[in-house]
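Before the break, one more example. Copy the sequence into your notebook; we will annotate it together after we see the structure.
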Amino acid sequence: MSSSVLSNAFNMVSVVVCTRNRSASLRRCLGSLMAQLPTASSFEVIIVDNASSDDTADAAREALFRMSNFRYCLESNPGLSHARNRGIAEATGGYVAFIDDDAEAYPDWIGQMVSFIGRATSVVAFGGPYERMVDSAVPAWFPPEYGSSMLSEREGALDTVTQFISGTNMVFRRDVLLALGGFRAELGMSGNKISYGEETRLQIDLKRQGYQVFYVPRMRVKHLLPAEKMKLSWLIKSLYAVGRCSSVTFCQKRTLLSCCAGICYGIVFAVRALGTAPKSPLRRQIYYSVQPLVSELGALHQFLLEGHDRA
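Here is what the structure looks like once it is written out:
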């Protein structure tokens, strides 16, 4: 594969792939990046190994042997935000794109990215949809929308109060990322700890600085939903983690009273939802019904851990 190189490095895209102990998925992800169609600008791929203990380094070396524009670095501080920030520091392009190690880009992913940058030079942040990709049968009860995201079929600015681009398909101007200090290290996955919100908080910070986040529906990736995440127990854990991270993610100052009020609302919502839900598999009904309650329990947990004033 070849791509024409522009003399202005600002036009180059640095694709960051953060990875930890998922060498098989990483190989597929890197394979999709090797198969990108030629673009009007050069790009590089930076593989950030977050202290893996499997053969991730071998998978990276295989890619580096084949592609001169691929690079590898090791980030020993555990946590996805640390790894992403390392990728930002290593990047040489004017734009930094992120794709998860268990995602696969469509062949025109970078081409769509570069095309949008060319016609929207003032935009500092944008992202696109992701489609659910599975390696095992999807249970009949499983929520059909889970694991995919299409915020809009039209290209344009998002309402960043309620809409946020996904961490597995997002692009930022590098100078703006550096000015904001990158991703918050207290948020994001870290080892086996389920944690979210780092990319959402970054987008909120962008909005506070007067920037808009745009959506490019043609810039598509596929994202793996493994069998272990197609269980009700995983969905509940994920909801709990969202609630636990919500105060930092959304800049909310919670109180004991607000947490208790949220839990009361969650109980009422769950009872009503279970009583009026249309006929559907029970586990799906449970998942939809308990979302506010489980999230608020997670928020209360974090409030108590932080030792806020109970008054």
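Residues 1-7 have pLDDT under 50 and may be disordered. The domain at 9-229 is CATH 3.90.550.10 (Spore Coat Polysaccharide Biosynthesis Protein SpsA; Chain A). Try to locate both features in your own notes.
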